[in-house]
Structures are given as structure tokens and as C-alpha cells.
Specification:
The structure is a homodimer. Helix content of chain A is about 65%, strand content about 0%. Chain A folds into two domains: about 1-65, no CATH class; about 75-255, Tetracycline Repressor, domain 2 (Orthogonal Bundle). The first copy, chain A, is built from ten helices and no strands. By secondary structure, the first copy, chain A, is mostly helical. The first copy, chain A, binds a DNA duplex through helix 1 and helix 2.
DNA sequence: GTAACCTTGTTACGATGCTTAACGAAACTC
DNA sequence: GAGTTTCGTTAAGCATCGTAACAAGGTTAC
């Protein structure tokens, strides 16, 4: 560690060893994911991974201190996967097309969950005791990042003047208080939004915040049921129709435009 | 088995042995559940249960052929638990109070999930391969029973003439087709409804069916996030307000009354 | 009452998995 | 080329699942 030979000359890149190590770590995670995919569970067996890599199980402990640590790494990766999948889908739509972006974002959320039910389960399933430890935990972090992508669309709508008050009977006092008291509110800010945060707070009234959460919950509910096959009796086409209706109704209730 | 001594006289009750056996099975399941509760996971360890019962692990195989079979039994029990919890809450409200019943039903769903996250996870979490085997699987069965409780309220509303068309932009053709082609539709009928099924089909138009599913999905989404702690940053009161708004908006969109 | 049988639970065993400790080999640094 | 770090191995301890063989009790039949 003290003798890093990469930082001296014009080669700030990682050492050969570091590259090998990174590659091995990546391979471990990849095979672990692949095994999860094949077994259909979120289990991870060191022995199995090692076998598949042509190694012995204890060797893996050079890279992960325990099975739990590998799982944590996989969870963190899942965050990134979901985040980028949703963000990419959103940015693939024209900038002003709020409805298109909302729909694309939601669809990406749904498709990722269906494509990677294990990773989805890692993030949004029952929290495994021990993963909340590091600083507020990656669990809530995932929720915030997913929320952040949604929020980006809402903020964009507000900036374009296309955000109308949501269809709510009024916001409960307790909700406003809860929102304001949540100092973790800052974490909710999406990275894309570097502007003045008070402006954001103004753009997103408590009512809109609530509507946004309700939109997210509704979307998440459909996605969960969809990804785990609880809606399969409907058939693919009907599920697609139900999804579209869910997003449409959610947008309408939240005060977002529902058509280009 | 061939020598059942309980069926002859006025004692059709189970044999002493059968009672003992049933009690042991109940104890195993109870301790298993208790251990799940304490560990915070859906794991079940035979050795641990046996130890806690003052037995040795192989003894449990007299009652459950494998760990999987115990898990399956626990899943089935979870169905009943959730079903009765929701039904009881519903029937505790006055018969004509549709809004009260809907709210009570939804709250029972939420509270059960929060109180028993492990059982909730067993039912609605990622399906474990192997549990879908027995006759369409208990997984979809759970969804249907939960749906059934909701549907009962919708049917009651229809019979009382208090069900108006839902706020939908029209129902997709694919959805109608999917609903009609789902012959498992029959299973969706709640036990409480013994009347003519065609009447039910008339009362619940495809649009209402879709609205009902959307209501359920929205509720399920909130409940999932709530039960797994993803909304804890809001605080209890705000979560309560959000829940109430979710049910209210869902009812309004579905064409159900939102006030007594 | 006694003999046969069934039920239940035990110990013994083998396979698999996680994890640590001790060791050897290769790579990298100087 | 010598010393250090990294990597991966073998050996071993411990826990688990699940099977097999066996012992002890209750139950049934005669």
C-alpha cells in the first residue's frame, strides 16, 4: 500500500495487481449474481462460486471478509444498476416530453425488476439484519435514489410550468411536519439538480411531495406484484395495459401532464 | 391409520395420539415462527427448533419431511392469518359503511404486514422455487384471497348502488381480454359471495375490475414500503397520513364512496 | 395378559457449507 | 537477488441438513 508505483509518472492508473484484484472481485460478483439468477433465490454460496471459478472457498476470503460482505457489495451494485437503468431510460426521451419521460422511467423501473427479480428483492425485499449498519444504510439509500429519479421529472415539470396542484383533499398537517422534520430530505435531492435547493422546496409543495410519494408507492406496488408473478394470471397484454393505466392515473392525480 | 378408534361411538374426536401429534406440529410451527421473528429473516433451522423444544433435529422429520415442507406449512398458515385478520377488521365495521369497511380492510392489511413482516415476506416476497408446485400454488392463492376481501367490498357497494364508474380513460381491450381469458377468475370469487356469479360479473365491469386491481396495487405498494421500513424517514404520523390519502384517492378513483 | 405393531424419539453417520489458521508459491519492490 | 506483500492452497473446527439403524413407549388384537 505504501509503495504504489502508479502515482509517480504519467501513469496514475492502477497497478497490475490492483487490476487483477478488481477483475477477480468483479468475477466473483458476476458469478454470484449468475448463481442467484439460476437458483432463483438471493442465496450466495462461497463454495459454489469458488468451484465455478476454479478456486477453493477460502481463497474468496482474500476478497470478501464474509458472505455477508459479498451480499452487501451485490446490494450496492444493485443500486447502481437500477439507478442507471432508470436514468438512462429517462434521458432517452426528448427533454420537454414530461409524459414520455415519466412513462419511460416507470417502465424502466418495472422492466428492471422483472429482469432482475433477485437484485430487486435485495434492494426492496425484507431488509436483512446487518445491512442497515453503514451510515443510515444502503436500504433507505436505494429508496431515495429511486425517488430521486422520479423527483427529477417533477422538478422538470415545475420548471416548465406544467405542474398543477395534485388532486388531493388537502394535505394532512402531520405529513407536512413529517416532511419538514426529515432532515434526510437533503439526500432526496437528485444529483442532476445542482441549483438552489430552496427553489426546489418551493417548486415541490407538500401536496406535490405527497402526490409524488403516492405515485411511487402505486408504481412500486404494481412492479412488485408484476415482478414476482402475482399478476401472471392476467396475461402479458393485460398487465401492460394495467401498468399504463397505473402510471397514467398516478400522473393525473399528481398534477403531471399525461400526454405529449 | 386403519385402526381409528375415534369414529365408532359418540367420540368422533381425534385419537389421543393424533391430538399429541397435532400439538407437536403446532409447537414446531409456532417456534419456527418465533425464531423467524427473532432472527428477522425467513430462515428456519431444524436444529434450532429441535433444541428449543428439547428434542434432537432428526425427530422433527417425523412431522415434516423436510425444511421445505415446514416452510410450506408456515406459508399456508400465513395465508389464513392474513385472510382472517383482514376479514375480521372488515366485519367489525357496520354493514352499510362502505368507506369504513374499505379503510378498516386496508388498515388491517397494512398492520398485519408491519406486525408480521416475515410472514408477509413469505407470501408476497420473491417466490421460492418449489412452492408453486401444489395446484397452481399457494402464491397466487394468497393474492386471490387478499383480492377477494377487497372485492367483497366492491360487490357490496355495487349491491347498494353506491358504486359509480371509475375515473379511467377507458379500459384497454387487452385488459378486458385478459380478464375474460383468466379462467382462474372463478377463484377470485370471495367465499362470502354465494349468489349468482353472473350477477357478480355484471356488477363488476371490466373498468371496475381494473380500478380494483389498481387500488390493490397501490395499497400493496404502500404496505410493502411501510412494512419494510422504507418510509420510516417520514415518521409515524406522516406515514399514517400518507396511508389514509392513498386509500382515499384509490377509493375515489375506483368509484367507491370516501365518506360515511 | 401377552404378543405384534405403530409411533416417536434417539444416536450414529455422511455430505455440504462457512470460516480461521498455517503454509507455500508467485509477484512485486528495492 | 533479498525481503515483503499478495494470493491461493490444504487442514481443521463447527454447524447444518438429511438418512439409517435402533431403542422405548403406547396401541391394538387375540
Amino acid at each position: 500500500m505504501s509503495t504504489e508505483s502508479g502515482t509517480e509518472a504519467g501513469t496514475p492508473g492502477p497497478t497490475r495487481r490492483e487490476r487483477n484484484r478488481a477483475a477477480t472481485i468483479a468475477e466473483i460478483k458476476e458469478i454470484g449474481l449468475q448463481r442467484m439468477h439460476e437458483s432463483g433465490t438471493t442465496d450466495v454460496r462461497f463454495a459454489e462460486i469458488a468451484r465455478e471459478m476454479g478456486m477453493t472457498a477460502p481463497g474468496l476470503y482474500r476478497y470478501f471478509a464474509s458472505r455477508e460482505e459479498l451480499l452487501t457489495a451485490l446490494i450496492v451494485d444493485a443500486f447502481d444498476d437500477l439507478g442507471t437503468a432508470v436514468a438512462d431510460a429517462r434521458e432517452a426521451q426528448p427533454e420537454g416530453d414530461l409524459w414520455g419521460r415519466l412513462l419511460a422511467t416507470s417502465a424502466a423501473y418495472r422492466d428492471w425488476a422483472r429482469r432482475e427479480p433477485q437484485q430487486f428483492s435485495l434492494i426492496f425485499g425484507m431488509p436483512v439484519p446487518g445491512y442497515r449498519a453503514p451510515d443510515e444504510g444502503p436500504t433507505t439509500e436505494a429508496a431515495k435514489r429511486a425517488m430521486g429519479q422520479l423527483q427529477t421529472t417533477f422538478i422538470e415539470a415545475a420548471r416548465l410550468g406544467k405542474l398543477v396542484p395534485p388532486l388531493l383533499d388537502g394535505v394532512d398537517e402531520a405529513f407536512v411536519k413529517g416532511i419538514n422534520e426529515a432532515h434526510k430530505f437533503d439526500h432526496l435531492m437528485p444529483d442532476a439538480w445542482d441549483g438552489d435547493r430552496t427553489e426546489v422546496a418551493e417548486a415541490l409543495t407538500p401536496a406535490t411531495m405527497q402526490a409524488m410519494l403516492m405515485f411511487w408507492a402505486a408504481l412500486h406496488g404494481f412492479v412488485t406484484l408484476h415482478a414476482y408473478g402475482h399478476l401472471e394470471w392476467l396475461g402479458e397484454a393485460a398487465q401492460e395495459a394495467l401498468f399504463r393505466s397505473t402510471v397514467e392515473q398516478g400522473a393525473r392525480c399528481a398534477g403531471l401532464p399525461t400526454a405529449p
